[in-house]
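=== RUN LOG ===
request id: a7f3
mode: sequence -> structure
chains: 1
length: 276
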Amino acid sequence: MHRQLYLLMEIADREFEGKLLLAFHAAHRGWRVLICPRLYFFDNINTFPEGVVIYKSITSGDLPLVEQVKKQGHRFLCIDEEGIVQRDEAYALQISYGKECIKAIDHLLLLNEKQKRLLLDNYTVDNEKISVSGYPRLEFLRILKDKEDNNIVKTLSNKYGKFIFLATGFPYSNHIQGDFGLEYNFYNVVQDLTKERIEFFNGIRLFQRYVQKEYEKLIYEISQKFPGIKIVLRPHPSEDIDYWKNKYQGHNNIIVDYQYPATFYIKASELVIQYG
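=== RESULT ===
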């Protein structure tokens, strides 16, 4: 009898490779693995045999998902892929995770020891329920590092030559959609709006506006100083692609390309500039 492992994705074009790597490791150890969109899994949850479900976040808004999984007899694990972009203050104000989610899940896998320390310092959590494992997405990037003959990497290298790569501003991408998008995400994640949490959010919103402005200015300056070098922008899947296309219309060396996951552009590029 195979053990069942369900790897749930929210956005396939930035999560699939890491999930596939994890699936290979699990299958090698005798697991039967399903990689699928989150919505597909929950739409058909009654049809799946009991197993282990792995998802990427456990904010307060994720509690209904955890409860539904547990009700069906599955075990729920979280590989905290969202934690890589969190601030220390988000732990201190208990924004990073939902307290009830932490109680309900079976195990939480983290990127590094700092995340683990922040979690233990600011939440009531059983030390046995958390481990430091790294991220499959980063492990995939490490594997790709030595694969000069990867077809996608070769395609990008042939297309752009030596190019500068900039991924745009997730989790700040909703700022481009206006404050409504930013506020919706915040209020959807945070249930109890204390004064301190609202102040923190307002500070983040001001900071994001500033960073977005400076980032766009930086791209323009690089374009002017290095007209012979291609600059490739890859927006996050949730962003308004036309925003970036219109922003630099007429700048022939600035290209918006989102055909492949960011990992392959990182490998093919000469230089990566990180947002923020």
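=== NOTES ===
Strands lie at 3-9, 31-37, 52-55, 75-79, 107-110, 130-132, 163-167, 230-234, 254-256, 271-273.
The chain has 13 helices and ten strands.
=== END ===
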